[in-house]
Design goal:
The complex is a heterodimer of chains A (384) and B (221). Chain A is α+β, with helices and mostly antiparallel strands and 384 residues long. Chain A has 13 helices and twelve strands. In chain A, strand 6 and strand 7 form a beta hairpin. In chain A, helix 1 packs across helix 10, helix 2 packs antiparallel against helix 8 and helix 10 runs antiparallel to helix 12. Chain B has a domain of 154 residues: Rossmann fold, CATH 3.40.50.300. Helices cover 37% and strands 28% of the residues of chain B. Classes of the chains: A alpha+beta (384), B alpha/beta (221). At the A-B interface, helix 1, helix 9 and helix 13 of A face helix 2 and helix 3 of B.
Chain lengths: 384, 221
Amino acid sequence: MSLRLWWGIAWRFLWRSRRSTAVLAAMIVSAVATLVFLDALAVGVSDAMIRNSVSLVSGHLSIENLPSGLSPDSLRPPGVEHVLRRRTAQVWLRSGTNLAGTSLWSVDPDAERNATALWRKTTAGSYPGKGTRQLFLGEPVAAELGLDIGDTLTVAGDPSQAGTEYVLCGTFRTGIAALDKGLSFRPDQGEDGDSPWQASLFLADGASPETVRGALRLPPEATARTWAELMPDLRQLIDLNALCMLLVMVLVFFIVSLGIACAFVIFILKNIREHGIMKSMGVSSPETALLLLLEIGGLTLAASMLGVLLGCGLTLAVAGPGVDLGAMTSHNQYFAVSGVIHPRLTASGLALPPLMALLFALLAGVWPVCMIARQRPAEVLRSI
Amino acid sequence: MIRVENVGKSFISPRGVTPVIAGVSFDLETGKSLALMGRSGSGKTTLLYLVGGLERPDTGSIICLDRPVHALTGRALSRFLREHVGFLFQFGNLLSCLTVAENVAFPLRLNNVGPAECARRVGELLERIGLAGAAKALPRELSGGETQRVAFARSIAHRPQILLADEPTASLDSATARNLMDLMFRVGREEGRTTMTATHDPEVTALADRTLRLEDGRIVG
């Protein structure tokens, strides 16, 4: 008995019961398409949170304690788009009698503008220019020191030292207290001499920080940490997001599967007469089960593929312009730069919904398949 | 040869145990035809199902073509049915999703007959029943008489040694019924088939080699 024969019969059952087939297929197509899109949206939300968080200042990979003689170009394995060279120092800012402690970053302003988004969060003045004695402070720090744009302040390693004078060129506000109150920026002019520097690596879309870290050849004293290690709270939030999406998928399919199960039971029992007739002609129980499973599996697979295509189309249509959730994310630190979500398709997001559809559809078919397969031909014929 | 010995069958329902066949015994020689007469509920259909293995007797034995049909299950029963038995039901019972030609070909495909032989045999049978032009029609497009003729073609497509017909003319007008019965008994004789027919129609008894009368599950004549 060839599979081809049974597949042919299954196909005829489906094709010549077009109305039932269409209703069942529509349920599966819509469920799969919705889940593909929802998963892409969830991935897009995670992407946006990572992008917003790393693009402000930290980058995807942060390497500390690099010797001053090391060239930034030696930190460019495949996948790295920008390497920012920074030196940090704990200093005191003084304006008159006002005093504030800060972590002062000496940076290359042009490179920072090119790779980070912090300068976009400027609330007054402007980002420091290259080769100037200017400071870029968080708005709360400037307010604490009673400074306006253009005012002069002193930077010293110790409150008792005279320090060096700088001009406040601009202020920023990210909404993240640790940044707004804890970080200040100045153009790097070699003030820190031969002290070790730190590198922030910004990666291309899709590049894995772990892979890039593995490809780096770092001096032994240097330590490299990924954004996930630097921001465990964000990592957990993204994992939570993924888990919620998985739960939504399972729950949606559990609920949808109840509908699919009912529809399949009706679909199979509607044809019980045919199965009784076939049994009276010598079709065995395993063949009956095979036929029913081919019907269920074939319909589910075809509808799932259509659902995946529909979900992909919907995602791609939305991915370009993105979904602007700015109104809902404006006070959220993980969306400090932009609230626009770009849904992104992933292999798991494309594979899981059709696999779940198939699993639940086959589970839904178990009872009617067992019922018909176990009955003697006369019992099925009598039930007509 | 069909040998039925002391066969009994009851059905259990909420109303209790209902005996349908009680102590029925008879022999039917190979190639001969038998008409089962009796009122509705006398046990004709159940006896046909028992002989064809669609139902298991509670007591007694049924030997068909040297096989203990009463004891056949699973694969052995499927094999017996697909190779040696043809069923012709009261309302045709064609597979609604298959065309006329596909319905007739189905028993052949079950017996692994190749496509060329299958097409030849289907063409021959449809020619014989006068429905060569309806090969691609679906069962819902056929009249009652046409449906029964297709069902008959299907029941003998694989040249079974036993044909079991359950009131095949009950839903037909007398002229159509007469034609179908003529065809069924003529082809049965030509091909040496053992035929059992449950019927209310006295005209059928005239065509059959033997007649058994059933009343309340017992043979009364």
